[in-house]
Amino acid sequence: MGRKQTKSGKIRLTEVAKLAGVSPITASRFFRNPEALSLSKRERVDSAVKELGYVPNLAARALASHRTEVIGVVIPSLTNNVFADVLRGIYDSSEGSRYSIQLANTRYSILQEEKLLRLFRAQKPAGLIVTGINQTAESRKVLETMNCPVTQIMEIGDSPVDMMVGFSHYDAAFAAISHILEQGRRRIGFLGARMDPRVQRRFEGYRDAMKTASLFDPNLVVTTSVPTTVTLGGTLFADLLARTAEIDAVFCVNDDLALGVLFECQRRQIAVPRDLAIVGFNDLEFMASAVPSLTSVRTNRYEMGRHAVTMVIDAIEGRRPQEPVLDLGFQLMVRESSMPQNS
Amino acid sequence: MGRKQTKSGKIRLTEVAKLAGVSPITASRFFRNPEALSLSKRERVDSAVKELGYVPNLAARALASHRTEVIGVVIPSLTNNVFADVLRGIYDSSEGSRYSIQLANTRYSILQEEKLLRLFRAQKPAGLIVTGINQTAESRKVLETMNCPVTQIMEIGDSPVDMMVGFSHYDAAFAAISHILEQGRRRIGFLGARMDPRVQRRFEGYRDAMKTASLFDPNLVVTTSVPTTVTLGGTLFADLLARTAEIDAVFCVNDDLALGVLFECQRRQIAVPRDLAIVGFNDLEFMASAVPSLTSVRTNRYEMGRHAVTMVIDAIEGRRPQEPVLDLGFQLMVRESSMPQNS
DNA sequence: CAATCCGATGGTAGCGCTGTCAATAATTGT
DNA sequence: ACAATTATTGACAGCGCTACCATCGGATTG
């Protein structure tokens, strides 16, 4: 014979059905489509479930139905505040739907990403949300064989695996630099940390804006592959100053670095914005609160999360968007730190 | 007859076994216990898997084996930086093990927590990590019927569901206040936001330390249920000043509030630490970088995550710790913001 | 050389649920 | 009133994998 007898303590759907006096399949329908049951049976199954404390077996459900109600989310970092807002949008939007969110963290490792995508594929998620558009060829292959709607978030590009929600990091950086140039600043430093693909694109926006104004100078660029911290902002700024003293503005690829620069200026008695303009990226909450308040590029992270989930759920349920790529844009939040020098 | 024929495109373990010239059960063992196979069969199965692009079906695996290799993690917030570090520890520690992490976010809602725990139970996780010790009676019941190792993190208490890793928020706050008192400060304000159970315990530490010195005054306490932001730190501090001008120190329940207080001081020309001492909680990275650098209570969040995973995995594999409750303590990081007034 | 053990492999029977289709009961139209 | 349609319900098989033995050859032992 096979394995040992089913323990009498185990409560399966069959037991519930028996107690309710219906067939197992009717009890099954109680969970998936209660409206299809007559009111009397619905009530009987409901009370049987409660009486027995029935806990459905999701594995059996998934095996029999060939699907799950899980939306996978793959992000590169939990430490980076940027993703906290995206995730807030994702969770807010998924709440009230039948789908639950399963989060996975690549920690900026493309190997880890491949591994996680493979794991997700084996779980047959109902939908998937992944960060960025620079997946490896291998990861892309996994995504294409995922057999469910996929949304890439955080940036936009020409060849979506399926759908995309994001904005142009290039344009956003370009706009920020243009703003600084309009304030009459000429020597604009670039501080970059953990140069992931999106940060790289911000650099390109900076570079091209500077080149357009014939002001690009490699000496103005300081980058590192180290992850971002506030302290690092101060360090990179010190490096920049050591390299060339003639600096009248700094563009930081994120707000933590910008805050670090501000602190370093306070330490060195550099007046902001008189002696130096500071512009960050993402517009985290503290930027408006700093003294002086810090200019930044607001990215619509919460909305990005919301839209990503909505698009995925709609696609799961057969309502595909007409346009697979959604650009949520950005807003330049001009504050005291980038006011003109004579103000 | 039953459902339609299995699509010929679908690759199951049977197909792999056939190609490798072994029985399905041998192919199955290839994944779970490769050492048990002879070298020749191992190689044959390996190449068959690669040739067919076999993707195991986790639902079938879970159904047949009655278990999964998922460790569930339940936290109240992703926005709160504190959890980012805990999660980093969790992910670091789980890497290299066979277990994968599944994250769920209650958003500080106890109803959401009950729902998520029920969902986890239906998934039969191998282990579970939950935040805090203040679960509802219902949640606790679900945890107790989870049938897998459970570790509560972030704080410690007397009645663990199973295991615990954390520290005493009460003691930490008490120590911070004692330090401020030792600097000769007498009127120490308390700023608190989103008064979750752990923040509540920090308040109790503050209150008792102040009472011990006969300095407790309800007018010094400003709290709100609103979630924490840097800006809110400034607002609460302004409220405190409006209520009583004689303040020579502020204890903030977290570092974001402390930074907000610092900015507000800069705006109001209040000299720190001469006119006011500021002490935060958690010791986020920016505290050391601020000007002046800000005193805080370092909590061992990364270690907490690491230990939680290790304890859970050990317990899954039958190595239960002798002592179910692990206290990781805290360190007071004294910096410029709480130096004596005459310095 | 029989008795014993051990490592490698396979056969069988489910795990608990749902898709498919058929059957039945209730309702409607003419 | 009777056929046609629509709501409910049920029977059956099987999703893809693994637990539980059974087996079988070969090594070890006395």
Automatic annotation (TrEMBL), chains A, B:
Species: Bradyrhizobium archetypum
Q: Which Gene3D superfamilies match?
A: 3.40.50.2300, lambda repressor-like DNA-binding domains (1.10.260.40)
Matching PROSITE patterns, A to Z?
A: HTH_LACI_2
Q: What is this protein called?
A: LacI family DNA-binding transcriptional regulator
Identify the residues that the record assigns to the HTH lacI-type domain, covering every copy. Answer: 11-65
| Swiss-Prot/TrEMBL keywords | DNA-binding, Transcription, Transcription regulation
- Entry's Gene Ontology molecular function annotations: DNA-binding transcription factor activity; transcription cis-regulatory region binding
Highest taxon listed in the record's lineage: Bacteria
Q: Which parts pass through the membrane?
A: none
